[in-house]
Amino acid sequence: MLADKFEADRAMVRETILSHTDGCTEKIKELRFLIAAVQTFGNVDGMCLMAEYAMNEFNLRDGVVDRFSTLVGPWQIPNEIQRNRAEFHSNETHRIPLSIASTQYDKRQLVMEILGRCEPEIARHQGIRVGLYSEEKEEIDDRFNRLYVGDRSFPCSEERYVLADAFLAGLADCLQGEPIGEAGNWLAALGKHLPEEFATPWERSGELFCSRHRVERNSCCATVTASRATFIILYAVEQLLK
């Protein structure tokens, strides 16, 4: 199943980039891309609960231009069996409890953040301003009204999310070359348990981790996963941009 998705994602990335750039390397460098990483409390009887969400916006010229991450909650799970499973998964992986006392976004706020970056033009018409798209102001710009904006008309289906390694392959196709061979294995290792002393060449002193995971350098952290994936992609195509 993932092999089929990989090929479909690779083709979609390639076709989308070429349609915007005609294969011009300088134009490809200007395109902005979003990469997301998620940590969950596991698939609880068909219900996937989000623990942490992170996004990086980047291009091939400047690298990372915007970062966003948050813990998501709190979650109320009335079913004791489901709750115990989720808590066990939390304790064994990212160590984020189901109930977060601070530094959290609820689901509505998170939807606004994601969609405001994925579809900024549509978001602007609905009064949503986030990240790099928060500078322009409408005549009526009321925070209270924003909280009641729905997410209708946002094209946010699962097909629009592509695998990171498929994105890298499609990008390399547009640059008429191959990414470095180790990149696929590096991407596959992200989000899993790694030695606490593990660090990529692009990070120092735990700076890429969220505040919750920075002390113990928990590699399940979604924030560090998004940043590491971004840097791997940039490094993997560096020679193709010259």
From TrEMBL:
One of its GO terms (biological process) is regulatory ncRNA-mediated gene silencing. Residues 45-124 form the Maelstrom domain. Keywords: RNA-mediated gene silencing. Pfam families: Maelstrom (PF13017). InterPro entries: Maelstrom (IPR024970). Belongs to the maelstrom family. This is Maelstrom domain-containing protein. The lineage of its organism: Eukaryota, Metazoa, Ecdysozoa, Nematoda, Chromadorea.
